[in-house]
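chain below, 199 aa
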Amino acid sequence: MEAFPTPFAHFAAWLAEAEKSEPNDPNAMALASADADGLPNLRMVLLKAHDERGFVFYTNYESQKGRELLANPQAAALFHWKSLRRQVRIRGSVSPVSDAEADAYFASRPRDSQIGAWASQQSRPLESRFALEAAVAKYAAKYLVGAVPRPPYWSGFRISPISIEFWADRPFRLHDRLVYRRSESPDGKAAWTSRRLFP
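prediction:
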């Protein structure tokens, strides 16, 4: 495995390959947060944007992960591409995306998904499936005509990485591991160094 000038270029190249080979959701990542007691929580989310600022996903800020990330803005994420026998691990700080970014992404979603964002009180107790379907019907009627606005509690987070590790399967478990770590350069810009790790 060769190092790239930045981990973001490395990730973009690997994701492009995964998009050709993974049968479902090559942008799926496991996202870890921690509650007030430090107990980790893990779930799958979908990566919706990535660049040198970080990795973006969207959620209900009143959900369990939303509340945890707002209270403790640190996260870890994992991509596992079984078809390529590769994985990428990301650790870093978390911050909300801008309203403009959230509005643009929300507007791009299917209308039924937009209605679902209004109807679902994500992570909270649900009386019955009928109650969820009734909430969907309520908001579908409310926003029958025109654009569906973004709920005020629905937005995105950006993980700004401090480390990104690339792992590739090799025979006899002598796997290839390359980790990039961020440091601050004298001019205040992020600088990245890479190092190989024992498997």
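The mean pLDDT is 96. Residues 78 and 89 are 5 Å apart (CA to CA).
thats it, cya
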